[in-house]
Amino acid sequence: MGSDDYLKIIEDQGHKLVYNPPGNGNCQFAALAYHLSSLGVLRSPETMREEIVKYLETNPLDEDGFPLYEWVPYFDSWPQYLTHMAQDHTYGDQLQLTFITLTFT
C-alpha cells in the first residue's frame, strides 16, 4: 500500500489529514511540535526532543513513583536510553507521549 492509499482510507473514514510529518525518525517530535503550535507553544522538532529528554532525565519516575526505566527494558540503563533518545532520527516512543500528556494537561 502506498501513502496515497492510506490517505484515501483516512478520508473515506471522514477524517482530514492536516499534517504529514517526515518519516525520518523525527516524525513524532515534528507532529508534536506542529500540533502544539496551535496552542501557542512554538518549538522545533529538535527542541521538542531536547526538552523531552531533559525532562525524562530529571524525572525518572512516574507520578506513582514507578521507574520509567521499567518501560524500556531493551536498554541496559536509563542513561543509555536517554542517550539513544537524544539522537537525531531516533523514533519517539510512549515515554515521549507521556511527557506531553503530563506537561500540557
From TrEMBL:
Record-linked Gene3D superfamilies: 3.90.70.80
Lineage: superkingdom: Eukaryota
CDD domains registered for this protein in UniProt: OTU_232R-like
Name of the protein this chain belongs to: OTU domain-containing protein
Native organism: Porites lobata
